[in-house]
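Deliverable D4.2, example record:
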Amino acid sequence: MAEDWKAAEACIARIKVIGDESNRQVDVIGEADGLNLIGIGTDAAVFHYEGTPRYAYKVYSDHAVYKKSIERDVYERLAGIPYFPSLHGEGDNYLVISYEPGPTLQDCLTEGIPVPAQAIRDVEEARRLVRERGLNPRDIHLKNVILQNGRGKVLDVSEYVEGGNDKRWEHLVWAYEKFYGAIEGRRIPEWLLEAVKKSYNKLDQSSLNLEDIAARVNRVLARFK
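Output generated by the structure prediction step:
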């Protein structure tokens, strides 16, 4: 059935996603049998329904529901590119996209799952194709890139209509090339990743160069040896 995803509508109606303009993660109120929370952000939460396993449901908070149509349009413009989920439908406050299983790059680091260079090249190719469609591939980071059978796939396209380059992916590629060989296959504690993230954010805000970032990251990594 073309719209078999609608089987989850009654369950989604029992969920309330609460957010505000503070840029903190949304809160989720309510529950429904078979509906599982699999992702959470500042505008929406993502669910997987056991009765329709091929789909994921991105449910927006009231303050961000206007972004649903923007993101729908982005998915429509990216149709056919294999490095992104595909769009299947929408409800009043949610989008229906293909469910994409696999560990995020963040999971790979914390669980010691090797990240092959091919996955990095896949994201680079995805970004090139996004630009060809007249969009801007922003906000690509450890938590919204997943590994599927050794290949990379990007999950979140919500900022692709915005301008500017946040450099997040470029800096991740640089870190992969400079540091990853020393830690590949090792489990990296969450606290260490947070420490690296905080060091990076401080340097980014003060506009220091990559060698300054490297020096601080090396000091943090030294605590892990």
